[in-house]
Automatic annotation (TrEMBL):
This is Guanylate kinase. InterPro entries: GK/Ca_channel_bsu (IPR008145), Guanylate_kin-like_dom (IPR008144), Guanylate_kinase (IPR017665), Guanylate_kinase_CS (IPR020590), P-loop_NTPase (IPR027417). It catalyses: GMP + ATP = GDP + ADP. It holds the Pfam family Guanylate_kin. It comes from the Bacteria.
Amino acid sequence: MEEEGKLIDGLIINFQTRDRRPRPGLFFIVSGPSGVGKNTLLNYALPRVDGIYYLPSITTRAMRSGETQGAPYFFVTKGDFEALIAAGAFLEWKKIHTGDYYGTHLPTITYALANGYDIITDMDVLGCMEVMERFPENVVSIFIAPPDREELRQRLAGREKDASVVAKRLERVEMEMGYMKKYRHVIVNDDLERAGGELVRILNSYSEHK
């Protein structure tokens, strides 16, 4: 099993020239509360669109069964990650309670946008606001909303048995929902086929305007 990754010419995505657009690249950012189904919708949509590259976060955590390099993360050693920090290679990064690092690779983003490649990732609302300020001409923001708060509470309760953890996540939901109006597109995830189809239509609407 592959444990760590090597950068491809300084990037974490192997871009193909056939997907290059005659315009600056677009950065699609999908946000929404925990448990709303962002990854499920991305997994539905990406095989149905052409020329949009998923931007994985870089992490130092171990690769799990069923994962591969770049899906869902780009895996590196802690030494390599800390070297990237020192080189200023992250748009943002964090170290979580397990001691593992997670970060968003800035050189891949800047290369894609400067060279006409479209990329997509999921990101929390605060991170999205920062990226919108940094790349205002390139970001296409998409917010995934739950059909209602009670259904989301049930989803979170199904994931986590600790009621205090569920309560904290629900508090964060209220904060995240407060940013919804700042997004260019909002999709209510009430049904996978319908919401996934809407995400596909949004992504294709930008690809059609090459």
